[in-house]
Amino acid sequence: MPKIKAAIPNRNGLVRVVFSLLFLLSGLLFPWQTVAQKQNRVFLPGEKLTYGAYYNWHFLWVNAGEVVFVADTVNQNKVRKWSLTSIGKSFKAYDLFYTVRDTFYSRVLDDNFQPDYFFRSVNHAKSSTLHEYTFDAAQRKVYSHVKREKGPPFRDTLAWKPATRDMLSTVYEFRAYEFDRLKKGEKVNFSMLVDNKTEDLYFRYLGQEDVKTRNGRKFRCHHVLITLLGGDFFPDGEYMHVWFTADRNRIPVKVETKILVGSVNAILTNLENIKYPLTSEIN
Asked: How many CA atoms lie within 13 A of 211 on its CB side?
């Protein structure tokens, strides 16, 4: 245990960065086009993706916890909708320094995959934040409810810009996109609803690369470089690298970014109930 503690230069924010990584990924995936008609989804109800979260400091890698994504369907008022959940938690050994229990939930319409409701509960040590967003397609409005650890809760009404989705549903929406249509170096602008406002960002396509996971599996992947929101730990600029399987599933295999001290990785460790064969896997 002392060795782990020595590897944590800023325990009051490090684990937050590790577990924000995939959640940032959920929001930084190009909703640049509005889906006008129902698409053939590349994932099935019951798909489950598990990622390990790793922190690197002075050549030492620390496995801090995991993040799990689950896609399913629900019937609400006889309307079929997608239910998307992402849960991040720190391992027990890390809880002694900084406990993380985060939940992201998104409900979207089946026909056009537009968001209907988004919930985000972030619990870090003794600090907690709750965000709720209800989407009104008819009025093109988003009704928000935000409650932070310090300060009273507040409600707001936001304009809903076309093609803007919540943080979690976007990661599933992008998987209908064919990366092969992009040229190497091509830049794509997009917008994201996060922290009660819409952010305008972009990503750049870097072509195909082979990626090996920590359990020894190897995949042909599409590599993209994504802008980050500046803050206490992430500097502004092109600092998040993401690799997606170069097959019909288009599953994120690896996420890597620099932080102000060291770097963080999120790496695929397990997948269940995927729709298509993993033709991108290299045996």
From this structure: 28
What is the C-alpha separation between 205 and 242, in angstroms, rounded?
Answer: 10
Query: What radius of gyration do the chain's Cα atoms show?
Result: 18
163 half-sphere exposure, CB direction, 13 A CA radius: 14
**Token pair of 21, please?**
């990584």
Residue 17's closest CA among 278, 273, 282, 232? 232
CB < 8 Å & 24+ apart, contacts of 162-165: 162/34, 163/31, 163/32, 163/33, 163/34, 163/190, 163/191, 164/31, 164/191, 164/192, 164/193, 164/198, 165/31, 165/108, 165/114, 165/115, 165/192, 165/193
Euclidean distance between CA atoms 119 and 130, whole angstroms: 8
By the 8 A CB rule, do 141 and 169 touch?
no
Phi-psi region of 13 (alpha: psi -120 to 50; beta: other; left: phi over 0): alpha
Rounded Cα–Cα distance for residues 137 and 112 (Å): 11
Measure the CA–CA gap between 12 and 63, rounded to whole angstroms.
17
Q: Which residue has the tokens 């849960």?
A: 87
What is the DSSP secondary structure assignment for residue 234, as one 8-state letter?
P
Distance CA 192, CA 202 (A): 10
Q: How far apart are CA 84 and CA 68, in angstroms?
A: 11
pLDDT tens for 89-98 read 888 777 776 6
pLDDT for 215-259, tens place per residue?
899 999 999 887 766 544 445 555 788 899 999 999 999 988 776
Q: Which residue is it, tokens 């460790």?
A: 269
**Whole-prediction pTM:** 0.82
Give burial (CB, 10 Å; 0-12/13-18/19+) of 202: middle
3-state secondary structure of 24: helix
Contacts of 60 (CB under 8 A, 6+ apart): 7
